Amino acid sequence: MKTVSLTKSKTAKLLAVGFFASIALLAFSGDLLPRPVEAQTNETDDPAVWGKRFPMHYADYQKTVDQARTRYGGSEAVQVAPKESDPRSVVAQSRLDEDPRLKIMWDGYAFAVDFREERGHAFMLDDQTYTDRQKVAKQPGTCINCHASVYLAYKKLGDGDIFKGFDAINKMPYADARKEVSHPVSCIDCHDASTMKLRVSRPAFINGMKAYKASQGIADYDVNRDASRAEMRSYVCGQCHVEYYFKGESKTLTYPWSRGLKVDNMLAYYDEVGHKDWTHKQSGANVLKAQHPEFEMFSQGPHARAGVSCVDCHMPKKTGPAKITDHHVRSPLLMVEQSCNTCHKVDAAEMKDRAETIQTRTFNARNLAMDALLDLINQIKAAKDSGRSDAELAEARDFQRKAQFYLDFVEAENSMGFHAPQESARILGESMNFSRFGLMSLSGVKPVKPFAPVKK
Ligand code: HEC
Ligand code: HEC
Ligand code: HEC
Ligand code: HEC
Ligand code: HEC
Fold it and tell me: Phi-psi category of 423—alpha, beta or left, where left has phi over 0 and alpha has psi -120 to 50?
């Protein structure tokens, strides 16, 4: 494995201190100027090579091995004895142990077997390679798109055409695709090697944005041609921090955005194409798993509305020998002064408290929605066990599909409501209402005339 190890990180920190002193001169003598990383034609996915030109950026990038917990996020190491099939001795803590209701919500799907708190970018390739989800399901090469530096693999497999290479990787079994890559997300996945400009390297995002913009009346949108620099500061993250599914036999990585970016639009899309992720083991409902929709949720929030980007909070500028973009991507609540205080001139502790207030309210509503969903699952199961027919259960099962996708959309979104507080609360309210309708459908009691929401 060429991923950064914990020991290397400590070394990196020591090195970083040394570097800050010793490269100060270099930095001011033009280290930050956009010059080719190597001889222009010779691109590399090895961040250490880029690190020779940009040692400060590389040192910060290596720090994503950090293990620092916040109330609802961050990372925490759990020490385990190294297993033969999993050379990691330290893994992230299990979310299933934290909240066993998740196992019921995902019963029959690989997530009910292993699901952990996410951690820093340095771990992405190992965590995917060794998750127990690999053991209970045959995972496709498609998984690799968001867990590795894959730009050069696309080019190699597609004879220079990243879209062709993308098609080739999606069709491979995971183990074969895994052999084509050797680093977690690297410099080349976000930067053009010769100009250092931000660029989107993921065909799934390029296609997804084209479909989304078309739904907004903008034809033939090309993210690398048409996006502003400010937009790019969120789009490079949106390459991976999004809801997705594997489309058809070719397992093409697809972002379901052709009707819009809201949860309602995505459910409508999945209903239209008739997609289900699996059939729920206890209730028999055809259900969906939402996955890390940070980009979509954030897009509905007050910060996106105000033109703030992911990078403003997660990679804020830092001062040192030179003012640079902090490549130690992590929770902003571990660096409130650097992150929030650039815009909010309020005491850092107060800013942290504002964020945690939003998160605790979301967490409590999430728990109510989860309880409601479990009641529905239990009741559908009981009705099924007592011999009620599929036709009689169809409506309740469809309400489970809805309630579960809405709840999971907030559950899987990693800011615990912060990225879009009111939208998160709305979604959880809808989820509880779907569970209520499901229960009423089973009992045969008709709900009062449903409220038709005002469009906004
Ligand atoms: C206004 C600041 C802000 C912006 C902009 C922002 N975030 Fe966040 N993000 C946060 C906060 C605060 C948290 C909660 C962190 C925690 O609980 O420790 C968070 C959490 C996260 C997490 C989970 C981090 C963890 O440690 O568990 C991810 C992943 C994430 N954001 C990605 C994104 C992406 C992608 C974007 C852009 C589409 C974005 N964020 C935009 C402030 C921001
Ligand atoms: C669209 C991009 C994308 C694809 C495709 C993708 N992932 Fe991820 N994955 C992420 C992001 C972003 C995170 C971190 C946020 C989170 O955990 O919610 C993550 C986290 C993880 C984690 C760590 C947390 C956990 O869930 O235990 C594992 C393991 C994982 N993915 C495995 C997989 C597997 C297996 C596949 C293929 C079935 C896959 N990923 C496909 C983007 C992706
Ligand atoms: C190539 C796909 C990819 C890209 C691009 C990407 N991420 Fe991630 N990110 C991931 C995956 C996968 C994980 C989870 C890794 C794990 O758990 O092993 C993750 C984890 C994180 C975390 C959690 C860190 C922690 O300590 O818990 C944050 C915060 C985050 N990403 C923010 C961002 C931001 C901001 C950007 C854009 C500047 C970005 N990511 C770009 C795939 C990506
Ligand atoms: C997940 C995406 C991502 C990855 C991976 C990444 N960068 Fe960046 N990088 C950014 C963003 C975002 C900026 C800010 C650009 C802007 O505002 O226009 C940036 C800016 C820079 C700059 C310009 C100076 C500055 O500090 O703003 C340099 C140099 C740089 N990165 C080097 C690197 C190197 C070297 C690596 C690999 C070790 C790397 N980057 C990996 C996203 C990334
Ligand atoms: C790049 C500037 C910028 C950064 C960085 C930033 N914010 Fe904001 N924030 C804004 C703007 C602008 C608004 C909207 C103000 C308005 O128009 O009323 C806002 C609004 C808010 C709100 C009110 C949300 C609501 O529901 O109306 C909270 C809470 C908040 N920010 C917290 C944070 C926290 C916590 C951080 C750090 C993790 C942060 N912000 C980082 C610019 C920023």
Answer: alpha
DSSP state of 63: G
Whole-number mean pLDDT of the chain? 91
Q: At residue 235, what is the residue type?
A: Y
What residues line ligand 3, using a CB cutoff of 6 Å?
Answer: 74-75, 118-121, 123-124, 127, 146-147, 185, 189, 236-237, 239-241, 310-311, 314-315, 329-331
* Ligand 4 centroid from CA 326, angstroms: 8
**Residue 288 DSSP SS3:** coil
pTM for the structure as a whole: 0.94
Domains assigned to the chain? 6-342 (1.10.1130.10), 348-443 (1.20.140.10)
Structure tokens at 54: 């940009």
311 Cα to the center of ligand 4, angstroms: 10
Which of these, 127, 128, 179, lies nearest to 153 by C-alpha position?
Answer: 179
Report d(CA 416, CA 421) in Å as an integer: 9
Number of CB atoms found within 10 A of residue 286's CB: 17
Q: d(Cα 116, Cα 131) in Å, to the nearest integer?
A: 9
**Rounded-to-integer distance, Cα 260 and Cα 385, Å:** 39
List, for residues 122-149, the tens digit of each pLDDT value: 999 999 999 999 999 999 999 999 999 9
Atom of ligand 1 nearest to the CA of 118: 27
Residue 42 confidence class, pLDDT cut points 50, 70, 90 = low
Residue 402: which of 437, 447, 362 has the closest Cα? 437
Q: How many helices (H) and strands (E) does the chain have?
A: 23, 8
The predicted-structure confidence for 244-281, as pLDDT tens digits, reads as follows: 999 999 999 999 999 999 999 999 999 999 999 999 99
Q: List all residues 6 or more positions away from 316 whose beta carbon is below 8 Å from its beta carbon.
A: 325, 326, 332, 335, 338, 339, 342
Q: What is the DSSP string of 336-405?
A: HHHHGGGT--S-HHHHHHHHHHHHHHHHHHHHHHHHHHHHHHHHHHHHHHTT--HHHHHHHHHHHHHHHH
pLDDT beyond 90 at 431? yes
